[in-house]
From TrEMBL:
Organism domain of life: Bacteria
InterPro entries, A to Z: Cro/C1-type_HTH, DUF5753, Lambda_DNA-bd_dom_sf
Gene3D superfamilies reported in the protein's UniProt record: lambda repressor-like DNA-binding domains
Protein name: Helix-turn-helix transcriptional regulator
Pfam family, one: DUF5753
Domain (HTH cro/C1-type) ranges: 20-76
Length: 273
């Protein structure tokens, strides 16, 4: 499916909004009537109905109960959230391939461009554990294809910071993690690649549980992509990008120097072997 076709097809957000509007009109309720019943603003509900805004968990629960939908609206909201993350991720990946510099921080998994095929497959399987392995083939292939950015004639500097938790968690088992960490050490030999680890001893910090990607475009502008707990956001506002860049710098200051980071990765590699 082309990007244009993806943009033109009805989104889960729009379908959810249309369902809510249909249910409201079926019972002869105006926007103000429904707003009074649920105690949410009528303009807010209107934005939800036209698909310009996703409803909150609290609103969708109230609507699901009001129209006796048995959890159907809640399920559609979950689908809309997942679709939103995939859409933002697709756009970020497209910008990634053209970036002049890539900076990434992850707090619980190995950064995507450093992942091996087995590691990526193990991660993706968590979304549907009982599905056959080939169900994830396309998604894994797409993630692996993103590594082509390193094959460009003028490849971008790549700076990756990851929490020690990503090294400790045995995603896919010991063999997969052994191959994954060995792969990181190999990639880190490239002078254009910098890998740092934020150790447990640093305690709490901003972005714990989330991830941040900063992509610098050929014209010098920077785009940020933020992910956390099943949600994703593409940030282009200069003010917010500056704020997120400062956050990245703070995390980088907490991380171990690269030489010590690689020693820690080797330590975990030995444990998995």
């Amino acid at each position: 499916m082309t990007e244009r076709e993806q943009d033109e097809r009805p989104t889960a957000r729009c379908v959810l909004g249309a369902m809510i509007q249909h249910l409201r009109k079926r019972e002869g309720l105006s926007l103000r009537d429904l707003a009074e019943e649920t105690r949410y603003g009528h303009s807010y509900i209107h934005r939800v109905e036209i698909g310009s805004q996703l409803p909150s968990d609290a609103l969708i629960t109230a609507l699901d109960q009001r129209f006796d939908m048995g959890g159907t609206l809640i399920e559609f909201l979950e689908m809309a959230h997942e679709e939103s993350v995939q859409d933002y991720g697709r756009k970020a990946a497209a910008r990634e391939g053209q970036a002049e510099r890539i900076q990434v921080f992850t707090s619980s998994t190995i950064p995507a461009l450093l992942q091996t095929e087995e590691y990526a497959c193990a991660l993706l399987r968590t979304a549907c554990p009982k599905a056959p392995r080939d169900h994830f083939a396309a998604a894994v292939a797409n993630r692996m294809a993103r590594k082509q950015v390193f094959n460009r004639e003028e490849r971008p500097p790549y700076w990756a910071i990851t929490d020690e938790a990503a090294l400790k968690r045995p995603v896919g088992g010991k063999v997969t993690m052994s191959e994954q960490l060995a792969h990181i050490l190999k990639v880190a030999e490239d002078p254009d690649v910098t890998v740092q680890v934020l150790p447990f001893e640093r305690g709490e910090y901003w972005m714990l549980g989330g991830s941040l990607t900063l992509l610098t475009a050929p014209n010098g502008s920077t785009l940020a992509y933020v992910e956390s707990f099943g949600s994703g956001e593409l940030v282009e506002s200069p003010k917010r990008v500056v704020e997120l860049s400062q956050r990245f710098d703070m995390v980088r200051g907490l991380a171990l120097p690269e030489c010590d980071s690689l020693k820690l990765i080797r330590k975990y590699l030995e444990e998995y072997q």
